[in-house]
Amino acid sequence: MEFFNNAKSVRLKSHLDKYLVADEDEQTVRQSRNGASRKARWAVELVDGNPHVIRLKGCHGRYLTASDEAFLLGMTGKKVLQTIPDIKKDASIEWEPIKEGYRVKLRTKGGKFLRANGATPPWRNSVTHDLPHRTATQDWVLWDVDVVDVSVLDDEYLPSNASSFNSSMQDQDHSFPSSPCTPSVSSEGRAMSAESERVWEPSIVSQKRWPSIGTDQRSSRNSGRQDGMEFFNKAKAVRLQSHLGKYLLADDDEKTVRQSRNGASHRARWTVEFVEGKSNRIRLKSCHGLYLTAANEPFLLGMTGKKVFQTHPETKTDIAIEWEPVKEGLNVKLMTSEGKFLRANGGSPPWRNSVTHDVPHRTATQSWVLWGVEIVDITVSDLDSNSGWSSPASSFSSLADDYSGSPDTGSPMVQYCNSGNDSIKEVLFFFLFFFPLRNILVKLSLIHLAI
């Protein structure tokens, strides 16, 4: 169940690298390599009173069903169809996920498994439920689970609401996207009647996994996601390190954003700006004074990933330069206003060292949107303004920038203007007098030992 507990919509990929799809005839279920199709998306519904099973609803509002009809006369495999059951508690639409390594098996109430068939027609691309009696067919019942971000789907990709369970959704407050580019916004309450089951409708953004956007007044704690702002609240400048150990870098052409192992470069430094009125958003400004921007231009024609640039927008209210940090363990994901994530690509050119914004559909690319945050300059809060610092906006690095090594002794020399600052005076006294005094004491000790 760990594959589905926080999932709202999934794609299931067979051992043949084909996806489970709901055909247009609203009855047939088969395999297809077109994983981008809306027919490959299945909404996840948890069953009330039975936490071990799920229902899967296709784009036509019909449920994945283990029928009793034989696929071929004389064969053990039985058909898997899309249906709308007469009653809500029909066991034929319930599937029990069983973990098998990094994949999952879906078991029916009768103990059989959802199976992706291969070989020649009529078996090719067919889907049945059966028991894998032979060793060669053990993998045929294993499925990869890709969690789909439905918050950014166009209206044409949203599943039909023609479900027999629509009556149980009457109590929920739905908010549908107003345009293909506008993500749907989840209801804050998501109230359901006591007797209704826990249903996650695909047209609503899941508060469990994918953060809703457009609700700036609502805190991230209320939306159910982990707040990633803790990485940036005290930061004045940061470096972002990808899963490849490379840093996000602003190129000298003042447009390109790429990855580089040279984290010491000033181009790897990004100034953090907070968005007024949006406590969970930041802007990242490069060394060229340009902002990290999620563009609408595809990185490659026909691919889902879109380019990330350095730009100077006409207004600072441009949402293309706003990023929402989402905490993921010790790392952070940077989400755009459209629900996509800043992604560090690998592989061969032109993907190598490139940076795009996209949704990681495959399990293998989930870590591509994770970034390590290294703070290179921090801002002192207002609480520290009375402790001797010149202003609340001052930073620790500004003090370090004033140090210069003495050519004679190697002791730090400091230039400062705020002569009334007792705290800094004490620090200067320590550096200016302790190190020379230590050298004198060491020399005296050596002379004493020699005598």
TrEMBL record:
Q: Which residues form the DUF569 domain?
A: 1-143, 229-371
Name of the molecule in the record: DUF569 domain-containing protein
Q: Which organism is it from?
A: Sesamum calycinum
- Identify the Pfam families for this entry: DUF569
Bias (Polar residues) ranges:
163-187
Gene3D superfamilies referenced in this protein's UniProt entry, alphabetically: 2.80.10.50
Q: InterPro entries under this entry? A: Actin-crosslinking, DUF569
Upper taxonomic lineage:
Eukaryota, Viridiplantae, Streptophyta, Embryophyta, Tracheophyta
**Location of region: Disordered:** 163-203
Query: Which residues span the membrane?
Result: none
